[in-house]
Every structure is written in structure tokens, then in C-alpha cells.
Amino acid sequence: MREVRAGAPPSRAAAVRTFLRHLLEMLAAMVAGMAVLGFVWSLVLARLGWPSLDDRPLLGALVMVTDMTIAMVVAMRYRGHGWPATVEMSVAMCLPFALLAGPYLMGLLAADSMMMAGHLLMVVAMVAVMLRRRAEFVVRHDAEDVRAAPRQGGRPAGP
After folding, report:
1. Is residue 154, in this structure, part of any structural domain at all?
2. How many domains does the chain have?
3. Which of 36, 69, 143, 155 is the most exposed place for a label (fewest CB within 10 A)?
4. Which residue range(s) make up the domain with 114?
């Protein structure tokens, strides 16, 4: 393994590995958020005597994407990502479902198709944000490393 001095740009292979690791970690955080917060929602709704969110697919999808977004925001902030990237990633996660709500409500899209397309488009949108801010996603997860990565435009990323 070759030694890389501090501040040196990572090799292309290392950058790709780190980029993919960031994506997988965010996806894992999202799944955890969906599972944990989804369980909490089911307990709260059952306690209140309200029907399951499964009975209302669009509401269920919006709650689920919110649960995933909360977990992803916590993970990104914990890893030292700045607010601009975190907000962009949150928008990228929510936007597909917002766009698909209209066709679903008009009866042009079945609930299962809305969920499948929403999740697929969410990952595509997340990768687009990561590529846009690639300097922030090809460095290690240490807070200092992320903040030291140049932002688009060459300025250092700040808190």
C-alpha cells in the first residue's frame, strides 16, 4: 500500500472506492432510518388507533422518505459534511416522490410503481448530488478531511 501524504489528492481508484463507500453508508443509514422510525410510527399509530400507513400509499411514501432523510442527515452531519451538501442531498431524496405524487393522485401511476420509481430516482438524484460535490465525497469521512476538501469554485468547505 503506498503512502499518501496529508492534503494530497487520492488516486482515482481510491477516490472511486471512497465515493462508493459514501453512497453505501448513506443507503445503510437510510435503511436504518426507514426501519427504526417506521417501527416507531407503527407503534404510535397503533397506540392512537389510526390505520396503518400501508392504507395510504402516498402518505406512507412521504413518511418513509422523511424517515430516510432524517437518518441520512444525521449520518452526513456526523461524518462532517457541511449544510449545503446535506440540504442538497435531502432535496434529492424528497424530490422524486414529490414529482411522482401528481401522476399517482391522477391515477396514472400505481402505488407499487410510485414506490419503485421513487426509490430508483432517489438513488439517481443522490448520485447526481455526489457527483456535483465530488470533492466532498472522495475524501475520508473524518470531519477535518471533509471540511478541508475544496468546494465547487475552489473555496474550502466550511462548517
Report:
1. no
2. 1
3. 155
4. 12-147
